[in-house]
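Justification of resources, computational component.

The compute hours requested in this renewal are based largely on the per-chain cost of generating structure records like the one below. Each record pairs the submitted sequence with a full structure-token output. That output is archived, and it is also reused by downstream analysis tasks.
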Amino acid sequence: MSYELWVNGKEKNMQAVPTEFDSPTYLDVLSQLDNAAEWICLDRNIWNRLRLPQRALCVSMPIKMDSGDVYVFQGFRVQHDSSLGPTKGGVRYHPGVNLGEVAALAMNMTLKCSLVGLPYGGAKGGIRCNPKDLSKKELQRLTRRYTTEIYPLIGPDHDIPAPDVGTNYEVMAWIMDTYSQQRGYAVPGVVTGKPICIGGSLGREEATGRGVVYITLEVLKHLGIKAEESTAIVQGFGNVGSVAARFLTSSNIKVTGLSDSTCGIYNNNGLDIADVTSYKKARHTLEGYPNGEMIDNKTLLESECTILIPAALSGQITEENAGRLNCKVIIEGANSPTTKEADGILNERGIFVVPDILANSGGVIVSYFEWVQDLQKYFWKEKEINERLHEIITTAFDKALKFSVSENIPMRKASMVSAIKRLADAHLARGLYP
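The structure output for this chain reads:
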């Protein structure tokens, strides 16, 4: 399938997508970039540079399992663009990880960092595995081998990994330690999202979910909807979704539906998030939760609410279900949860969508704070971190909203255009080497 055919046969005079990146997620992100680039008549040379990652590494990692057998895992690290500074992006452990998906997420990170004004380019990494099927010892061996394989690409001044789906602060600690062993001294700035005791930042674990709620409150204010009269459904009860649900409740927004990878739960009178969190922590699943109706993911997404927050995986809102969503606002807590076709349907229906590159940028913003603190060897109070997060993310939202309103374009296109303009300026200023 050529990219030219994928964009309805229009002759873009652009380079086709190489086969190795030809995945649904990559093509969706590329479509968003192309749409915004065409709208601003972006220089074709810069346009072509942004359509492909700057660097991509594929690694094979033979790991001795607890059984004594050796299993070979596949891993990736992609750096999309470094025109604004060192690259930044998470590490994902999931069975569906592939080069195209990682490249798409790296491109998304470039746009995200540019949009909110961070001195970073975008990167992403991942290992094709199911972390739930691995023991802690196996996970640690896998992480340390992966770090050794990508060692030439990462570092505080080059590329800084962070947690993503299937990884956490513990995995970041193993990456930091493995890298530091190679250097011969502690290098806390090589990763963000690590434990506080080895240079992590206060507020980092909650940052993405907190940022989602900051954006949600700004949207409600813009639309003239009172928080206490709103309901929310959160798809995904991992780090982002669980934190977002908690802060939504504390902001007087009733959370009526939640889901994890096993099932969904619904209660029209509102769910007790603290109780749900305790249940999930004890049983590692929402299945069987007694104070809510068990529903499937399809039903959850299509249930009536004011705010829908997809905070699970990519490609959850599709052409098939976009016409049946029963919400006024979508805040994209996950990366690329909405397909290209679905986005058009949502725009036609007048649903207010805040794109992922803005809505879930809280994580990389506070990761930036952590990186700065590690480099300075001076750490901030949590109140100060949350205040700075609020200022940066709401300022970015306000700018995108004003541009969206003035040009009568959706928030996604307004955000993409703003991000691309900053990247284009950087490329024009730096020129082409050699």
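The longest strand covers residues 70-81. The radius of gyration is 21 Å.
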